[in-house]
Amino acid sequence: MAFLDNSGDIILDAVLTDEGRRRLAMGDGSFRIAKFALGDDEIDYSLYDKNPTSGSGYEDTRILQLPVFESFTNNTTSLKSKTLSYSDPSLLYLPVIKLNNLIAPTVTDSSGPLGGYYVSVDNTTTSNIEGALTSPESSGYRFAQAGATVDQSRMIFDQGLDTADLSLGYMKSSNSEARVSDLFESGYLVEVDSRLLGLTTPSDLTVAQPSFIDDDSIATYLFALGSDRSYFARQDSASGPSAAGASNAGGTAEPAFNIVTDSAGTRSQNTVIGPTNTTGRLGSRLIFGLRSSLNLQNSQELFTKLGGTTSIVYDSSTLNFSFINTVIRITGLNTGYRVEVPLKLLKSTS
Amino acid sequence: MATSFKTLTSKDVTRAQTKLHEAIPLTGTILSGTYSDNNIKDYSHGMFQSVYDYPYLSSSANHILDLTVGWATDSSLSGSSGVTLRNKKNDIYNEMSQVLAGYDSTGSINKLDVSGSFGSAVAVDKMEEVLVFNFSRLLTKDEIQKQANGFTMTLGVSSSYATPFAKTMNVYDISGSNGYRTNSPAGEFNILYATSSAGVDNVPCGLLFYQAGLAVLTSSVFKSDFVEACEMDSAGEPIDDLLVSGSISGSANAIRHRVQNISFNNTTELNSTIYFCRANNSEFNYSSNPTYLSSSQIRVKELSTDNPVSYVTTVGLYSEDNALLAVAKLSEPIKKTPAEEYTLRVRLDY
User: Fold this and answer.
1) Which of A43, A92, A165 lies nearest to residue B289, judging by beta carbons?
2) How many CB pairs under 8 A join A and B?
3) ipTM over cut 0.85
4) Do A64 and B311 touch (CB under 8 A)?
5) In chain B, which ranges are continuous DSSP H helix?
6) Which residue of A has its CA nearest to B339?
7) Claim: this prediction has a pTM higher than 0.90
8) 20 to 30 A from A220, CA-CA: which of A271, B43, B74, B325?
9) What is the pLDDT of residues A223-251, one digit of tens each?
10) What is the DSSP string of B98-147?
11) Per-residue DSSP letters for A42-84?
């Protein structure tokens, strides 16, 4: 009789991240490890072969051979994707978070940030853009200066089951399956470079307070449905399209994340969840506004340090800008799904 | 409800202390001229001499130890004529005594005592003329390891200056880990004993301070009290004459000339916190990796009855407010399904 293989004992040496070291140095008790998560950043699940030619057992041969990086010490670089716990092992669909580019269209010109926005940081830039372009809000522009309207500054993210295999419905309602309502996202982490941008409520544009700002000036905002309803879209008829006046599963922000029934039928409106407006399951909708930092509004310093200059050609004119490329990250607190939106911050130079 | 984090309870966290030891062999040639004394640094203040392992003007040089000498104000040498640097030698002795032997009940500085009883009135045990080896923190780390014969120093004690190692004497801490003293304000220490085939058998000759990383020898080791009266310089001066009329640097040169070897083990106290990250069968089987889904459908499942699969490469340790404080990496992806449970031991060293 052979011995059992006991080489499976897994002992790992951890390294502190830069944020971990900073908190340790602060000595104020903010360095306290309270929980853990497991990550799979290196894994490309498209390599999983459900029907391997070599027979069963070879489905993940290529995945298991993927090399693993050493630890990154930058706290925002590691665990970009996490493994998740769902009590139900029979789930076949998981929710996604998508930038809503129907209500706030993204950039389409080739010099812009693909799938993202140009962001004007001050009044002069906004005036120049509005003078050169009709309805810039519909052409991938966001305005982040104080005084910008809600429609001009907001970003909208829709969460849900984005599949044609499921008929249209809400993820969380009185008549939805429990295992589907478990996939409803009720909290979001938003990360943004605090030197460049802040976030505001979508209704009255009050500046939000970040949960913390790390050593690299990345501010993390936590929005939870229970306490931050003004960042979550209203969702009427939560118990289903036909149950008017049922409890509201969403928040108070507009535009609502609704299924509507009218002369055109029962359908979703202005959502990117579901390949058609009669399929997919709607979860939560996060809305917030952008606000450029005072430094960006009043100084060229960060543009010189972090960016460059560019010219954008419009129909009748060409405008010159200083620019900074940055990214805003949105992560589902419970579902772990993460989406990054590229932003190109613009400040007029002429 | 989906979760990507798992809270660590008090049962999942434990602490451990590990002592790491390194062998430190110092060959006498480093002290006595491998680099034509370019690795020996004298200072204008003349209070001590530093020994490096490489010419000290090079950035590759590491500090090894400092050498100095001193004698008490009421030493028998104090009545000698032609005393050079009397104050500095007295100051060195008093500083060493003050730090290593402390004060008596009246606030007077205790004398260094070869018996280890600093308050003792036994005059014969007092070391009134001392040679000090002050080892660099780089070598001793947290302390010199306490072990039987752990610290050994081989001195050349032949009377001839030209052939100092024709007779040698070993100096060592005889009792090591089983017996040491704690009555020094500088931490734990032990008595150094000398033994030589030339007729010396375990005679107390100095003190070794483990945590301070410092050895103090009586100047008598180079007198006939031990083996032979040694010629300490090319002029044939005995140790007492050198301590009276020579500079401190000159005495340090003479001592280096008679050191054949020094060896000891250092100790680094490693404090670790071990986090037991337990992934139960129903946990962490799904992923938020963008490649995990295709149109919201899980790629690794064909039917809802198929087991979910994830591949873990990273463990992240988080604060309560979701800041990533530490990261540990696996050497290869591990497959996580409802059929497996893992306990990942993540060790964080301080």
Assistant:
1) A43
2) 294
3) no
4) yes
5) 28-31, 86-100, 137-140, 239-245, 248-256
6) A89
7) no
8) A271
9) 999 899 999 998 875 444 444 444 457 88
10) HHHT-B-TTSPBPPPBTTS-TT---GGGB--EEEEEEE-HHHHBTEE---
11) T--GGG--SS-TT-TT-TTHHHHT---PPPP-STTTS-SSBEE
